[in-house]
Specification:
The protein is built from 8 helices and 13 strands. The chain is α+β, with helices and mostly antiparallel strands.
């Protein structure tokens, strides 16, 4: 898998771009059948969902079959990588690239710090209260309310969140206080309009228990390489056309006319950055057997929702 660092103009690291090799369908896969969705890990149904007829939200049932493909981070590794989202991102990227039961498939992906999940947070609201409000409630059944939470990008755990007295949570709470807590890995799934917790349920619970900001890494699809190259060429062509226009104006009216770089240059830079980080919808594959198969799986999971 190819991976490359993303940086700002000042050289500051902002994330990783990931390009898996020949992987036509992932091991952790979203399937669709009409308004019904299935998230399966290899052959195991992980989550069944059905979108409301009027698109107000989606009801779901988790099966508790999800298994993280990331080994539990050791305490010594947590101390060594503390405060470095860049190094943690490279570590998670290795697991994502190697995992046969992860979500990566052909195309281009971004793995970035989850800063955008904080855009709605009121600074006056304690961290614990904010993140508790972001977590989707309900086990095994629940409901994602798109009407009340549109654009807030809620977080849906793929298994029940452990309590504050859970042994793993207690260990991670100590890391929260020490500032060495490893990041929580989230996956943005557009068909659910939320983030799924791929790894770090206990770490997220520990941060909430300590009312601390959890470190986050967010995985999402981006423009494929060929599409990115074509759109980049279009942006550069537009920039060169604009400079040619200013050159003609300078030839006609003299050197008092600017050369255009002060106007066209920043616009080109903005457009290139936008293309490089542009999000694409999550792919969903047609469910073999269609809605009849979805209903069979729903009955097996005890989820008879229409």
């Amino acid at each position: 898998m190819r991976r490359s660092d993303l940086t700002r103009d000042d050289g500051a690291w902002t994330g990783l771009a990931l390009e898996p090799g020949d992987r036509r369908r992932p091991g952790l896969c979203v399937f669709g059948a009409g308004r019904r969705l299935l998230l399966a890990q290899l052959s195991r149904p992980v989550l069944l969902a059905v979108v409301d007829e009027h698109l107000d939200g989606v009801g779901f049932r988790r099966t508790d079959a999800y298994r993280s493909f990331v080994p539990p981070p050791r305490a010594d590794a947590a101390r060594a990588l503390a405060g470095s989202p860049e190094r943690w991102a490279h570590r998670f990227a290795r697991y994502l690239g190697d995992a046969p039961d992860g979500p990566l498939h052909d195309g281009r992906w971004l793995l970035t710090p989850g800063h955008r999940l904080l855009r709605w947070r009121d600074p006056a609201v304690p961290h614990a209260a904010y993140w508790e409000s972001m977590l989707v409630e309900g086990h095994p059944d629940g409901y994602l309310d798109w009407f009340d939470h549109a654009g807030s990008w809620e977080v849906l755990p793929l298994r029940p969140m452990p309590g504050p007295e859970d042994g793993r949570v207690k260990a991670y709470r100590k890391q929260v206080r020490e500032g060495t807590l490893p990041p929580v890995l989230l996956w943005w799934v557009s068909g659910l309009d939320c983030h799924l917790v791929l790894d770090g349920h206990a770490r997220l619970a520990a941060a909430i228990a300590e009312s601390a900001e959890p470190p986050l890494l967010e995985l999402r699809r981006a423009l494929p390489g060929d599409d990115l190259a074509a759109r980049t060429k279009d942006a550069v062509d537009l920039y060169e056309d604009e400079l040619d226009r200013f050159a003609r104006l300078r030839a006609l009216h003299g050197p008092t006319v600017p050369d255009g770089t002060a106007l066209a240059g920043p616009e080109l830079a903005r457009r290139l950055e936008e293309l490089r980080t542009m999000e694409r919808p999550t792919w969903a594959w047609p469910l073999p057997g269609g809605e009849a198969r979805w209903h069979d799986l729903a009955r097996e999971a005890g989820f008879p929702r229409d």
